[in-house]
Design brief:
alpha+beta; 2 domains; single chain; Glutathione S-transferase Yfyf (Class Pi), Chain A, domain 2; binds glutathione; 9 helices
Length: about 210
Amino acid sequence: MILYDYWRSSAAYRVRIALNLKGIPYQSVPVNLIKEGGQQHSADYAALNPNELVPVLVDGEVTLNQSLTIIDYLDEHYAGPQLTPSEGKQRYLVKALAQDIAIDIHPINNLRVIQQLNHRFDIDERNKVHWMQHWINTGFAALEQKLAPIRGIYCVGYEVSLVDVCLVPQVYNALRFGVDMSAYPNIDEIAGRLNELDAFQRAAPDNQNDAT
Ligand SMILES: N[C@@H](CCC(=O)N[C@@H](CS)C(=O)NCC(=O)O)C(=O)O
């Protein structure tokens, strides 16, 4: 199992957490998103993933991008905790909340979006931070409200789910960009608890070999 990875990529971070939770050994191949103008744009990597984004997972004959799909694949093909329940109404709740984070919050704060804001609109560092905070705050305000009545010790009840796997990398990003987490007590408390788990700790950006 090979994961094309980058220590600070939240999408790759999700997959690292899922692999660790399921106890699947893997080899991380770092793709430095900054160095050399971004190694994701190299010809070799673009041949592997024409989207020029990490992560990509290679499992024998199977090559997959899209972190949520990769995690579905792991759920369906490997033992260990099921991160999206296979049936029942919880299945759709988990998917919707995970997508709130991975589809509505994350992409608009992606590196290539910020690079375009820089190149085309010449935004400075202060406005870049405002942009990041604005979209994270918008998403977290809604998520906090949605989690309050349904949460257990984790986002959905008492088992770690795909929502938790998406939450922790997004909270890492929020802290990186100075979001005030005191406005989100449920998110903050759950993320703190998840960060005590070994699978989450081993996946943390600062614990990756390519961390700088
Ligand atoms: N929807 C994709 C998003 C992948 C993605 O946006 N990856 C980011 C890192 S978190 C990336 O490679 N960015 C490189 C760039 O913006 O040039 C997934 O969930 O896997």
